[in-house]
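Good morning,

Attaching, inline, the backbone tokens for the sequence recovery test we're adding to the shared suite. The designed sequence is right after.
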């Protein structure tokens, strides 16, 4: 800008700008917003301090990877019709507003449990209605929920911004590492060439690959629990076996004691006879 002013000054030309032009030229550049990238450990800590409603927003949000506007529009009927089977559970086709395409999202194990719990709470409050939304809040409110959870969990985000959209980024980043772009984009509702579309059961296989990287309820921990349960059951069986052996041995001891008493009586009789003989 200084170069232009110098040029006009050199040629002694009057340089004038109207107000819109001045605002456009001299308006300082806006600082670039930086967004915090959530980690699995961050989500685990946030989950620990969340109430059921916040836990639904957090866990279902990171599992579906939908934009906030599409997320808050989900109805109870969408979940009631699909909360069956083993994770990942397909939610069917979800129409997305921004790009006008269908998303094919899935619920991981965390999201299945959070959804079931929230539906039970809605039922206990008399708010269970298939035609009503799962949560009656705005997209700004879900942003606020995630921001508050991060603060409550003691996550240091510095000057970076935390919002609901970062859950979508979290999932997309991890999906992109296990499957092709045209496939993970279908899951979260991003436009892809028509020739790239695949069937939903193939997408489920892709989503299953990312579960270890997004699930808070770690499979390792669950395996350890199952192992301990198996050990407890084994000990119970051993206990039953020992109890049976104990009873058997006690029976044998009682028989031996009875035989010993009979032998003692027999010895006494023989001793008395011998004394009489003398």
């Amino acid at each position: 800008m200084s170069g232009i002013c110098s040029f006009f000054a050199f040629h002694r030309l009057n340089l004038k700008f109207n107000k819109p032009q001045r605002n456009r030229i001299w308006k300082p550049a806006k600082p670039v917003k930086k967004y915090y990238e959530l980690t699995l450990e961050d989500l685990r800590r946030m989950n620990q301090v969340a109430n059921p409603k916040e836990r639904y927003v957090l866990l279902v949000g990171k599992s579906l990877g939908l934009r906030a506007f599409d997320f808050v529009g989900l109805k109870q009927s969408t979940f009631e019709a699909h909360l069956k089977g083993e994770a990942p559970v397909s939610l069917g086709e979800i129409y997305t507003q921004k790009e006008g395409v269908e998303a094919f999202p899935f619920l991981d194990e965390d999201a299945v449990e959070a959804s079931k719990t929230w539906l039970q709470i809605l039922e206990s409050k008399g708010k269970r209605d298939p035609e009503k939304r799962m949560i009656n809040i705005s997209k700004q409110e879900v942003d606020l929920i995630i921001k508050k959870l991060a603060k409550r969990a003691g996550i240091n985000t510095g000057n970076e911004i935390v919002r609901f959209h970062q859950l979508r980024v979290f999932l997309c980043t991890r999906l992109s590492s296990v499957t092709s772009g045209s496939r993970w984009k279908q899951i979260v509702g991003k436009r892809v060439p028509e020739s790239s579309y695949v069937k939903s059961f193939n997408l489920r296989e892709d989503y299953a690959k990312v579960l270890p990287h997004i699930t808070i309820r770690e499979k390792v921990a669950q395996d350890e629990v199952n192992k301990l349960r198996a050990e407890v059951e084994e000990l119970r069986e051993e206990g039953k076996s020992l109890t049976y052996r104990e009873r058997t041995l006690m029976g044998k001891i009682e028989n031996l004691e009875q035989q010993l008493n009979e032998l003692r009586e027999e010895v006494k009789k023989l001793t008395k006879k011998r004394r009489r003989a003398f």
